[in-house]
Design brief:
By secondary structure, this protein is α+β, with helices and mostly antiparallel strands. 39% of the residues lie in helices and 28% in strands. The chain folds into two domains: 104 residues, no CATH class; 119 residues, 2-Layer Sandwich (Beta-Lactamase), CATH 3.30.450. The strands form two sheets. A six-stranded antiparallel β-sheet has the order 1-6-2-3-4-5. A five-stranded antiparallel β-sheet has the order 8-7-11-10-9, with helices on both faces.
């Protein structure tokens, strides 16, 4: 029986990590707009990939840029051939590196459509940050891009520094999860004598929440999940 889902809910990198760590033999079909990619897993690694007429390791670098789309996972499907020799963790790390380079290279070359899209994105991020601060025990919230751009914040004293910290911690946590075969990165907690911050991925961004260190994280966990689900539908 196939498992179906949306890349907005679970990223391709997470799907790869889960299937490789669980040593699944499976086929993963990924669709984005009019394109369809296929990945085959066996013995804890990716063994074959296709995208249209293209096949092999380079396919992953295109698939990782797909921020939305659907997927279908079918277990116990054997790959028709082997076209991938590099380990899945190395491929993901190289994909992250290339995405970083591409984001930097794009610079300020935005057109009107890009500016409108970014404006809507920032407005949604601001609404989300405000909603998180309505949770008892949360005294600040920030939504950051994975490159430390501040998209929205509420009652955060130094949003630039918070975004830089969230992006740094989030990216390092993702890389360590890959290197240690620890599965998908879900949340990281940082704290000092008088502060506590939790950082977690949300679609293609990071969310950083500052909390009263006297309040347990478990006391706010349910409200945080409810808020995430509500904004995931936007």
């Amino acid at each position: 029986m196939a498992v179906q889902g949306n890349l907005i809910d679970i990223s391709l990198s997470s799907l790869i990590s889960i299937n490789c760590n669980e040593m699944n033999q499976a086929r993963l079909l990924v669709k984005h707009q009019e394109q369809e990619g296929t990945l085959f897993f066996d013995e804890g690694d990716i063994v074959h990939m296709t995208l249209g007429s293209q096949e092999g390791e380079d396919v992953i670098f295109e698939l990782l840029t797909w921020e939305d789309g659907t997927f279908e996972l079918t277990k116990d499907v054997r790959a028709p051939k082997r076209s991938v020799q590099t380990s899945w963790s190395h491929l993901l790390l190289e994909g992250l590196r290339r995405m970083d380079e591409q984001a930097l290279a794009q610079g300020n070359g935005d057109n009107e459509a890009d500016r409108e899209r970014r404006k809507a994105e920032r407005e949604a991020a601001q609404r989300m940050a405000k909603d998180f601060t309505r949770i008892d025990g949360i005294d600040g919230a920030l939504v950051s891009s994975k490159y430390a751009d501040v998209l929205g914040y509420e009652t955060t004293k130094n949003p630039g520094a918070a975004a830089a910290l969230a992006a740094f911690a989030g990216r390092r946590a993702e890389e360590l999860s890959i290197l240690l075969n620890a599965g998908a990165f879900e949340q990281i907690t940082m704290s000092g004598d008088n502060w506590r911050m939790i950082v977690f991925p949300f679609v293609k961004h990071y969310i950083a929440l500052s909390m009263d260190p006297k309040i347990s994280i478990s006391a706010t966990a349910n409200a945080i999940q409810v808020t995430k689900r509500r904004h995931r539908k936007e």
